[in-house]
Design brief:
Blueprint (H helix, E strand, L loop, with lengths): L1 E6 L2 H13 L4 E6 L9 E2 L7 H10 L4 E4 L2 H6 L1 H7 L4 E2 L7 H4 L1 H11 L6 E4 L2 H8 L6 E5 L8 E4 L2 H13 L10 E5 L4 E10 L3 E3 L4 E7 L3 E12 L6 H21 L5 E11 L2 E8 L7 H7 L5 H8 L15 E8 L24 E5 L2 E4 L2 E4 L3 E9 L2 H12 L15 H4 L5
Parallel strand pairs: 1-2, 1-4, 2-3, 4-5
Antiparallel strand pairs: 6-9, 7-8, 7-9, 10-11, 10-14, 12-13, 13-16, 14-15, 16-20, 17-20, 18-19
Helix pairs in contact: 1-10, 6-9, 7-8
């Protein structure tokens, strides 16, 4: 099979590695990729925003399956560009991708479909929004409606903090077009859970559950990031709970989208809060998460290339299932000093040659080649996934390996998975 993966981060590295295992003799290209993706695939110097160029490449190489990693190309309409050329692509249309690109659309859809989520109101005017939050009890959740690279959701611990978030979005234009409409939500207590589904527009098949840690510092303290680590499976993600989420969340949303003429095909991510009243949706994404993909995909035993290609061709998933997952996986993300604030780039990276084994996978995210050397090129530099018979052994392998990576300012959290195995494991 000829496969094209669009993107350049750790998620795309994990997708390439998984599809290489599924199809050892196939051809895999990654656009634009990174130094890590050049292992399971071949990198192509095409930007994720060059939709026409990507379609030209897919046509030239007779690509059987294009997989879109990041959200922006989906929101920009890459599915429509490929469909117009008769090119199979796994991912939703731009209109269907509004599940992620417009939080106001997603919230209204959930309300219409009876999907459990937090109470909310939508505003475009600062004064009206300020008047509303002034009568709320903190914590108050303020979200930019559009795509904001994972930084548009603020849990304000005071009314003043909520007002500041509203000023940044609606007055100071911090997030541009993405923040000109805001969603103000009720705060939901509980533990988070991530569930990814493969969808053909009608069916929703879950992958193994996962949980990520977004706060920068140990103990889940400090600013939000794109993700400092994740693990799978989650003890709370029982088969009974996942089936409940499939029935009460995924299937109603798919039906609601179909009724609106927006059939949803691709990965559907349900970010959940496990509240005392049951699971409620925090948000939807239209692709795999990062770094969750780096623990979910290594534990997915079933072939993904075949069913993804079938969905890309407009076919049904039929009775496909993700298979049984065995053991556990945990990823520790090694970041640049200063992240998620400003940070330097270009520091040489040393990765021991024996670091990667059957039980330790190294995923590149913010790396580049410069003058023949591997150097830092982003905030989240590398993700080190440990595999084990249980979460504790996976954590030990991940943390020990992360400590062996060397570059100036390298930092990581040593407590990923602490809610299940404690802060000092490893």
């Amino acid at each position: 099979m000829n496969i094209l993966i669009v993107g350049s981060g750790g998620r795309e590295h994990a997708i390439a590695a998984k599809l290489r295992r599924d199809d050892p003799r196939g051809s895999i290209w990654v656009a634009p990729g990174n130094p890590g993706t050049a292992g399971p695939g071949r990198n192509v110097q095409l930007s994720v925003s060059d939709l026409g160029g990507l379609a030209d490449f897919a046509s030239e190489k007779a690509i059987d399956l294009t997989v879109v990693g990041p959200e922006q190309p989906l929101a920009d309409g890459i599915a429509e560009v490929f469909a117009a050329r008769g090119l199979p692509l796994f991912g939703p249309s731009a209109d269907a991708a509004r599940l992620e690109s417009s939080k106001s659309f997603a919230k209204q859809l959930m309300r219409d479909c009876g999907v459990p989520s937090a109470g909310f109101e939508i505003f475009t005017d600062y004064d009206r929004a300020a008047g509303y939050v002034s009568n709320l009890e903190p914590p108050i959740v303020v979200k930019a409606s559009g795509l904001a690279a994972g930084k548009g959701a603020i849990v304000a611990e005071s009314v003043d903090a909520a007002l500041q978030a509203l000023r940044e979005m609606l007055v100071e234009d911090r997030f541009g077009e993405s923040g000109r409409e805001v969603v103000i939500e009720d705060f939901m207590p509980g533990e988070e859970l991530s569930v990814f589904f493969l969808s053909d527009g009608e069916n929703a098949v879950p992958l193994v559950s996962s949980r990520d840690h977004k706060r920068r510092f140990e103990g889940d303290a400090g600013p939000n990031t794109g993700g400092m680590g994740a693990y799978a499976p989650v003890v709370d993600g029982t088969p009974e709970l996942i089936e409940r989420v499939r029935r009460e969340v995924a299937l109603p949303v798919l039906q609601g989208m179909a009724e609106r003429g927006l059939p949803y095909r691709g990965f559907l991510y349900a970010g959940l809060m496990l509240t005392p009243q049951g699971p409620k949706v925090v948000e939807f994404n239209c692709r795999l998460g990062d770094p969750e993909a780096q623990v979910v995909l290594p534990l997915t035993s079933a072939d993904l290339a075949g069913p993804m290609a079938a969905v890309a061709r407009g076919e049904s998933l039929g009775d496909w299932s993700a298979g049984d997952s065995h053991g556990a996986a945990l990823i520790t993300v090694v970041v640049s000093g200063g992240y998620p604030g400003s940070y330097p780039k270009g520091h040489p990276i040393e990765i021991p040659e024996d670091l990667e084994t059957e039980d330790v996978h190294v995923y590149h995210a913010g790396t580049a080649h410069q003058d023949g050397r591997l150097v830092t090129a982003g905030g989240r530099v590398l993700g080190i996934t440990g595999l084990g018979e249980d979460l504790r052994s996976a954590a030990e392998r991940s943390r020990e390996a992360a400590a062996r990576v060397r570059f100036a300012g390298a930092a990581w959290r040593n407590d990923i998975g602490h809610s299940e195995i404690g802060p000092t494991a490893g």
